[in-house]
């Protein structure tokens, strides 16, 4: 797999995570509205060293051959810190991409922009032929990103979220469909 590197969009930098991102992640992530529909592996209440522990795990996973990718989202023109995170897990089974964004930046299309760039990376550089995506059904914003990207619903199951067991939507997007969408 290609190495983790900085990616760019019109309004964002997607930068590899660093331990220096911990204060911003701690401050921006530890909010119920962000966490409540995420995978139940996220600790809640978020511990005072939650961001540091998260970053230690992610940075260890990215040593040696890259098996997953995690980028901090940086808005061009400020603030000069991480405002969210997006991950790509090529070997992630039924959960190959995940993301969160600081609430003050919701509704601007920033996550769709970041997710589009990660799809380009997944299909054009990693060589994935399809990606399987999920979200808690209640997480309509996350589902809307998938709809805008042209993903096809392939089913539902349940998932343990931070706020309990919830219905989960499963989506599939092929590289071929992604490229057709971009051309049109």
Ordered list of secondary-structure elements with their pairings:
Blueprint: E1 7-8, E2 12-16, H1 22-29, H2 32-35, H3 50-61, E3 69-75, E4 84-88, E5 97-101, H4 110-126, E6 130-136, H5 140-148, E7 152-161, E8 164-174, H6 175-183
Antiparallel strand pairs: 1-2, 2-3, 3-4, 4-5, 6-8, 7-8
Helix pairs in contact: 1-3
Explain the overall architecture.
32% of the residues lie in helices and 28% in strands. By secondary structure, it is of the alpha+beta class. It has a single domain (7-183), classed as Gcn5-related N-acetyltransferase (GNAT) (Aminopeptidase), CATH 3.40.630.30. It has helices at residues 22-29, 32-35, 50-61, 110-126, 140-148, 175-183; strands at 7-8, 12-16, 69-75, 84-88, 97-101, 130-136, 152-161, 164-174. The longest helix has 17 residues, at 110-126. Strand 3 (69-75) and strand 4 (84-88) form a beta hairpin.
- The CATH fourth-level homologous superfamily: Gcn5-related N-acetyltransferase (GNAT)
Can you count the helices? 6
Q: What top-tier CATH class fits best?
A: Alpha Beta
| Gross morphology | globular
Radius of gyration from CA coordinates = 16 Å
Sheet with the most strands? 5 strands, antiparallel
Would you list the SSEs in sequence order as H and E?
EEHHHEEEHEHEEH
Class derived from helix and strand content: alpha+beta
What is the number of independent domains? 1
Question: Which ranges are low-confidence, i.e. pLDDT below 50, for 5 or more consecutive residues?
Answer: none
User: Mean of the pLDDT scores?
Assistant: 96
CATH architecture name = 3-Layer(aba) Sandwich
Beta-strand fraction estimate: 25-35%
